[in-house]
Write a structure and sequence with these properties.
It is found in: Cell membrane. One of its GO terms (cellular component) is plasma membrane. Keywords: Membrane, Transmembrane, Transmembrane helix. It is a multi-pass membrane protein. It is a single chain. By secondary structure, the chain is α/β, with parallel strands linked by helices. It has 3 domains: 186 residues, ABC transporter transmembrane region fold (Up-down Bundle); 114 residues; 217 residues, Rossmann fold, CATH 3.40.50.300. The protein has 21 helices and 12 strands. A 6-stranded mixed β-sheet has the order 6-9-10-3-11-12, with helices on both faces. A 4-stranded antiparallel β-sheet has the order 2-1-4-5, with helices on one face. The chain has a two-stranded antiparallel ribbon with strand order 7-8. Helix 15 crosses helix 17. The longest helix has 53 residues. The termini are far apart.
Length: 573
């Protein structure tokens, strides 16, 4: 497959399904042209076979050995061309299928990664998975059939010319009859498309339910809810089965029509041709050729029917792909800073949240505390420009005036519920392979995750299961902390980084984090006194307002509300 040309797809056109499929075809026009060329050669060589055989039979009837030998050699040559062209056509068609399918998979995957939480919030996981696993293959199938369809059209024209030259009535039957066969299948296409859409939606719902059930399997077992979800899954499965049966019925009817109509056409063509032979208007060899054409025309008609089916399915699949691509990221990249506008030069710039008046001194370890943890988590999202309408400045430059890529490089926010991916621990900590073992081990040490390395047989090369299922909650949290520490960003924002660890480990993390991030800006959202004791500055928010700043000890002695939140005291009567 590598020998076939592979074009850069560029930017997709997502204004309509037709334009999107046209963009996909243009992105690999070379392989489509190669496939169409060999598809035409393959089909035409088959179309000429009855014509050559008919002339050979006429040579036998005329007792002309030389003519018979020439036509026999011509038939052999057509067979060789057909075999070689068939191999190349199949190779190019499979390449078209795979290239198209995997381009769609890459496109959807990259869009989902670029938009972040916008896709799972707008669409179920099952829908996205079905789009990647199923819809991409349907679109690829359409690209695979296209070269054969091109060959069917050209061969139909060639056969029509030959038959017209042999007999005008038979030629007109071919020219008019074959299009009528294709048109007759039209009424079946619309219900087929509608039933495909319903089956596709039911399958997406079932996939989503299965993914949610597997993700929450431990909880279900804890509350004894397995039977409830099994029955619900069985009910959804029955819906998918019923939709599949209805779709299969329509498809079976279409297949039956594809057999019946060409068969009727074959009978009529043979009957008319036989009468012309009896009347002396055509030679017996021409009748044999016409009979061969009648059989051959079944292939273009079937190919046309298959093209109608896969094109319909590809349109349904393209609609689902466009639904994913239509989801926009929460934070849009409006471009770089305007010309002449100052840009933050380094980590020496003050980070300011204008909504609350919070000012984070460069190089400091600042911790945020609130009586409502969701509020400080929202502040962290603003500091990292994870939400629209930022209102945060880095120095004199608003973050929303900077390219998103630059903000992500300079300001890193670690979620309170981090996700670990399947693969080696090394690739999870350093996906781009930019750090050596010493740096990775140091980051694990800062996060007090040395015990994780000790328990894993192969150390950094040990495999981590999906979502880190092989690790405890505290171990996953510490590995995620090590992952962001490895990046060494200018500004690091941590949200409850020690909520799943014991007090001893938390105290160790607090001290090591302070030393490891010395001289670089670090913001931590936490209410843990062990963490707060290591802070340079603590910002206390009450009722959504910045009320006080200072050291942990100062706020403990001067701010009763802060003391009650940190020590978890109850309000006095």
């Amino acid at each position: 497959m590598r020998a076939l040309p592979y074009a850069d797809p560029g930017v997709p056109d997502t204004r309509s399904r037709t334009r999107f499929l046209a963009w996909l075809a243009r992105a690999q026009w070379r392989t489509l042209v190669v496939g169409a060329f060999f598809g035409v050669l393959w089909m035409v060589s088959q179309a000429l076979m009855p014509w050559a055989i008919g002339h050979g039979i006429d040579g036998i009837i005329a007792d002309d050995s030389r003519s018979t030998a020439r036509w026999a050699a011509f038939v052999a040559g057509l067979g060789l061309i057909q075999a070689l062209a068939g191999v190349m056509r199949h190779r190019a068609s499979v390449a078209n299928w795979l290239y198209s399918a995997f381009r769609v998979i890459q496109l959807v995957s990259r869009h989902a990664a670029r938009t972040g939480p916008a896709v799972p919030r707008s669409m179920s996981t099952g829908e996205v998975v079905a789009t990647v696993s199923s819809d991409s293959m349907h679109i690829g199938h359409a690209m695979e059939v296209t070269p054969r369809f091109a060959g069917a059209i050209v061969s139909y024209v060639v056969v029509s010319v030959i038959v017209l030259d042999t007999s005008v009535p038979l030629g007109l039957m071919v020219l008019i009859g074959v299009p009528l066969l294709v048109i007759a299948m039209g009424p079946l296409i619309r219900p087929l498309q509608e039933r495909q859409r319903r089956q596709r939606e039911a399958l997406g719902d079932l996939t989503a339910l299965g993914a949610d059930t597997v993700a929450g399997l431990r909880v279900l077992r804890g509350i004894g809810g397995e039977k409830v979800f099994v029955s619900r899954y069985a009910e959804r499965s029955e819906t998918v089965r019923a939709a599949g049966v209805r779709l299969a019925g329509t498809q079976a009817l279409l297949d039956a029509v594809l057999v019946l109509l060409p068969g009727v056409f074959l009978v009529l063509l043979t009957w008319v041709g036989a009468r012309l032979v009896l009347s002396g208007d055509i030679e017996p060899g021409a009748l044999v050729a016409l009979y061969g054409y009648a059989f051959f025309l079944l292939m273009p008609v079937r190919t046309a029917g298959e093209m109608a089916f896969v094109a319909t399915r590809a349109m349904v699949a393209a609609k689902r792909v466009l639904a994913v691509l239509a989801i926009e990221r929460d934070v849009r990249d409006d471009g770089a800073t305007a010309e002449g506008e100052p840009t933050p030069s380094s980590a020496e710039e003050v980070l300011v949240d204008e909504a609350t008046g919070l000012r984070v001194r460069p190089g400091s370890l600042t911790m945020l505390v609130s009586d409502e943890p969701a509020f400080t988590a929202a502040v962290a999202d603003r500091l990292g420009r994870l939400v629209p309408g930022n209102g945060v400045r880095l120095g004199d430059v608003p973050l929303d005036r900077l390219p998103v890529a630059e903000v992500r490089r300079r300001v890193v926010v670690s979620d309170p519920e981090p996700t670990l991916f399947t693969g080696s621990l090394r690739s999870g900590l350093d996906p781009h392979g930019r750090h050596d073992d010493a740096e990775l081990t140091a980051a694990m040490g800062t996060a007090s995750a040395g015990d994780v390395l000790e328990t894993l047989r192969d150390g950094l090369d040990s495999m981590v299961e999906e979502r880190g299922r092989s690790l405890s909650g505290g171990q996953r949290q510490r590995v995620a902390l090590a992952r962001v520490l490895v990046r060494e960003p200018e500004v690091l924002v941590l949200v409850e980084p020690t909520s799943a660890v014991d007090a001893h480990t938390e105290a160790a993390i607090a001290g090591r984090l302070r030393d490891a991030r010395a001289g670089r800006t670090t913001v931590v959202v936490t209410a843990s006194p062990l963490m707060l004791a290591k802070a340079d500055t603590v910002a206390w928010f009450d009722d959504g307002r910045l009320v006080a700043t200072g050291s942990h000890d100062e706020l403990m002695s001067t701010t009763p509300a802060y003391r009650r939140t940190v020590t978890r005291e109850e309000d006095p009567e």
